[in-house]
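Protocol step 4 of 5: obtain the predicted structure for the target chain.
Materials: sequence only (see below). No template structures provided, no constraints applied. The aim of this step is simply to have a reference model before the mutagenesis design in step 5. Sequence pasted as it appears in the construct record:
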Amino acid sequence: MKPRGRSYIGTGEAGFSLIELLVVVAIMTALLAASIPSLRQHTETVNLMKGSEAVSGTLKLARQRAVATSNDVVVVFDSVNGTYYLYEDVDGDGTYDVGETRSGTYDVPRRVTIDDVTFASDKVTFSPSGAASETGSVVLVNTRDLARRIDLTAATGLVYVTDVYAFGG
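Step 4 output (C-alpha cells):
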C-alpha cells in the first residue's frame, strides 16, 4: 500500500520556504526587541553592584596598606566627577603632598553616581592600627534610582555593603 500525500524525497523540494524562514526571523527579532529594556535595566543594576564592590574594595585596600606600611592611608571621594583615589599620607598631615604614594583615580561605572559621602571633607583616613578616622558611608545611585550604601565603622575599619534598595532622593 502506498502512503498518501506528497513525497519530497528526490523531488528537490526539501527544506523550508523563504516565507517560513522570514516569519521565524521576524518572530525572533520581535522577541529580541522586547527583551532589550530588561537587559538594560539588568546592566544598570550590575553596574551599581560593581561600583559599590569597587569602592568597598578600595576602602579595604586602604586599611590593609595602612597596617602594612605603618602610615596613614587616605581615601578621597569626588562626588562631582564620580571619582575616588587613595594615597599614603607619610607625613600624617591629611593632605596629598609631592612624594607621597597615590593610587590612580578610579571612576564609578557608567550611569552610576556618588550621591552622598558622609565623611568630613569627603575623605576618610585609616591609621596603622587599621581604625578609620570616622564612621561614615558612601551612597552610590544608578539612573533607575536604585542605590547601594557602603558603610565604614571607625573603631574597627570594617566595611559593609548593603543590598540594592530603592533610593528616595
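Step 4 remarks: The first strand starts at residue 72 and ends at 78. The chain has one domain: 18-166.
Proceed to step 5.
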